[in-house]
Design goal:
The chain has about 80 residues and is α+β, with helices and mostly antiparallel strands. The chain has helices spanning about 5-10, 10-20, 45-50, 75-84; strands at about 1-5, 25-30, 30-35. The protein has a domain at about 1-55: YefM-like domain (YefM-like fold), CATH 3.40.1620.10.
Length: about 80
């Protein structure tokens, strides 16, 4: 169900009642989708794909981030220096 921002604001209780019934609402701004309101118990797309066996979760988390590179000067100075 698509609902404009103004319509959502004016009828929030009615729309939240339909979400409680299990419906998903797509909020639009000038006809373009900007948000989705889903029931709390509904699985996310990722959870659905994992349950269907189409996606497997990562075996381990990403490694540690590298330490930032220490440099003197601004980024603009560094880029200018590299272009020479």
């Amino acid at each position: 169900m698509d609902v404009g921002i103004r319509e959502l604001r004016d009828g929030l209780s009615k729309h939240l009642a339909s979400v409680r019934e299990g419906r998903t609402i797509t909020v639009t701004d000038h006809g373009r989708p900007v948000a989705r309101i889903i029931p709390v118990g509904a699985p996310t797309k990722l959870e659905q794909l994992v349950a269907e066996g189409k996606v497997t979760p990562a075996a381990r988390r990403k490694g540690r981030r590298r330490a930032p590179i220490k440099a003197s000067g601004t980024v603009s100075d560094l880029v200018d220096e590299q272009r020479r």
